[in-house]
């Protein structure tokens, strides 16, 4: 599986113009759909304009991530919701977003599905903007993006109010490794203290290596 993770592109969902106006946009889209008698998505995410950094990343012109998205099976996008971090595993060809939330509080699945719906509009617009669908010979209207929450019976859950970032980082390690066993058997809240120590050690060691060069 070719998976691309760029921590620099951590979407602040709560600060996007799309999020502040999403209800108005969805209402207008529904009205247009009823008038046109169609049910395909429209690429009008509230005048969203991707930054130059994001465009370089998606097209493979980022020095750290030189592979364009059309060569990827999936991408990992850390998303910051109000007061909480979640991880979105975007399966590009399938048009699906898998939501990894370390605070799945309602019936075992995340109640933040609506909070990341802006991403479902931004992704197809961004892919269309950089020519992804043309490169992949895909119809952008054929399969709109959907979101699925990963069940808490599979992914470890935090029992405090401040470890979401550490859980997210561990999720990003396990996804590319294609771990098949329940992740609760790999790590959990009891391991977070040691994981934090490991992160601190990695930062120190890599910092020393950079300084020596």
TrEMBL record:
GO CC field: nucleus
Single GO BP term: protein desumoylation
UniProt entry tagged with the keyword Hydrolase: yes
Domain of life: Eukaryota
Entry keywords, A to Z: Hydrolase, Protease, Thiol protease
SUPFAM superfamilies documented for this protein: Cysteine proteinases
Record-linked PANTHER family: GH15225P-RELATED, SENTRIN/SUMO-SPECIFIC PROTEASE
Recorded family membership: Belongs to the peptidase C48 family.
Name used for this protein in its record: Ubiquitin-like protease family profile domain-containing protein
Species of the source: Dipteronia sinensis
């Amino acid at each position: 599986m070719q998976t691309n993770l760029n921590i620099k592109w951590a979407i602040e969902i709560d600060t996007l113009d799309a999020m502040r106006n999403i209800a108005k946009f969805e209402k207008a889209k529904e009205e247009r759909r009823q008038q046109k008698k169609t049910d395909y998505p429209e690429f009008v995410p509230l005048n969203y304009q991707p930054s130059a950094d994001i465009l370089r990343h998606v097209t493979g012109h980022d020095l750290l991530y030189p592979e364009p998205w059309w060569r990827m099976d999936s991408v990992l996008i850390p998303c910051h919701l109000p007061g909480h971090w979640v991880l979105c595993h975007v399966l590009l060809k399938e048009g699906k977003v898998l939501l990894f939330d370390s605070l799945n509080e309602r019936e075992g699945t995340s109640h933040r599905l609506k909070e990341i719906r802006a991403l479902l509009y931004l992704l197809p617009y961004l892919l269309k903007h950089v020519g992804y669908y043309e490169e992949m010979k895909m119809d952008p209207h054929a399969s709109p993006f959907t979101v699925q929450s990963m069940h808490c019976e599979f992914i470890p859950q935090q029992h405090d109010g401040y470890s979401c970032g550490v859980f997210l980082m561990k999720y990003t390690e396990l996804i590319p490794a294609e771990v098949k066993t329940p992740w609760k058997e790999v790590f959990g809240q009891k391991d977070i203290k040691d994981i934090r120590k490991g992160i601190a050690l990695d930062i120190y060691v890599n910092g020393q290596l950079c300084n020596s060069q």
